């Protein structure tokens, strides 16, 4: 899809129709529109005034699932809890915490698909961390026609050899269907460009917070700023709530951030170059008074690790 107004209007309508299914938008109160951006390509422009704290939109995920990182801690693929894990007894080799989660309809499609990739000898008893890491792109195969149209029209970064699809192929017995492999690889590129880290609320005070990654149709349109005018959080349904962090006037672009905000300019630009494949030229990055502040990488994130975690947006 190009960036002419007819194409952007079509994408705008597709995003509205998708979220209407989950009753998180109301046409009569919409205050945004997909339009041409002065930052990069297309963006989300405000059509009414927002004050700090105002909710701009609630966004239902196209897909949500495990992050693709080296040291991913296991959790139940249905409820995302981390206790009493066992391998699904139907031999999809994904971790679940109970028969209730194993039998949940949300797990049915991915379970059947992965079972179909087992060899004639069946699957091992233990759950497989590689299938677990590839689960998010496997879930993309269940997207309906409208959701797939949106995915096709989102920004994509260049393909990479180290991706979830190749990982999956190396840990199943049967070959993937060409059309499935092609679509999942496209989804890898879309996720790399647009996925958000989804931090879920915990049910118990001492539980470790689960971090997923999700693809959100409206939020994917938000362009980056090192001084964004929004904040966001997630509810228990993994829906993203985006709120204004300062005054946004009609015609202004609504922005998010793709990098940790407390980094110095050099570190932010390095992070964005690795993860999003662009060199940031925003006003903050061009301000010489802050150019030498905090240019260390985030704690526990080396240069190499950033390359490995390419595509994940870090939270503010």
From TrEMBL:
It holds the Pfam family SET. Residues 30-259 form the SET domain. It comes from Parthenolecanium corni. InterPro entries: SET_dom, SET_dom_sf, SET_SmydA-8. It comes from the Eukaryota. This is SET domain-containing protein. PROSITE patterns: SET. One of its GO terms (molecular function) is S-adenosylmethionine-dependent methyltransferase activity.
């Amino acid at each position: 899809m190009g960036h002419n107004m007819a194409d952007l209007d079509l994408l705008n309508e597709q995003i509205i129709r998708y979220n209407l299914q989950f009753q998180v938008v109301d046409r009569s109160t919409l205050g945004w529109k997909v339009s041409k951006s002065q930052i990069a390509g297309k963006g989300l422009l405000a059509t009414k005034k927002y004050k700090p704290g105002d909710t701009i939109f609630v966004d239902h995920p196209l897909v949500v699932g495990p992050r693709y990182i080296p040291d991913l801690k296991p959790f139940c693929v249905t409820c995302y809890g981390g206790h009493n894990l066992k391998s699904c007894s139907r031999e999809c080799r994904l971790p679940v915490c109970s028969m209730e989660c194993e039998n949940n309809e949300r797990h049915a499609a991915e379970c059947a698909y992965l079972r179909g990739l087992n060899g004639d000898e069946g699957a091992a008893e233990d759950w497989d961390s590689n299938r677990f890491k590839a689960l998010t792109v496997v879930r993309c195969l269940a997207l309906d026609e409208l959701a797939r149209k949106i995915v096709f029209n989102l920004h994509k970064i260049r393909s990479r050899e180290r991706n979830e699809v190749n990982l999956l192929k190396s840990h199943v017995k049967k070959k993937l269907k060409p059309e499935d492999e092609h679509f999942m690889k496209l989804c890898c590129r879309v996720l790399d460009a647009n996925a958000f880290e989804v931090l879920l609320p915990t049910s118990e005070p001492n539980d470790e917070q689960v971090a997923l990654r999700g693809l959100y149709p409206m939020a994917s349109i938000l362009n980056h700023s090192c001084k964004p005018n929004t904040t966001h959080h997630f509810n228990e349904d993994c829906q993203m709530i985006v709120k204004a962090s300062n005054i946004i006037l009609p015609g202004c672009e609504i922005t998010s951030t793709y990098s940790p905000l407390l980094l110095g300019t050099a570190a932010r630009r390095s992070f964005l170059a690795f993860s999003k494949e662009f060199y940031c030229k925003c006003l903050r990055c061009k301000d010489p008074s802050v150019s030498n502040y905090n240019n260390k990488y985030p704690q526990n994130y080396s240069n190499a690790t950033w390359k490995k975690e390419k595509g994940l947006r870090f939270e503010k």
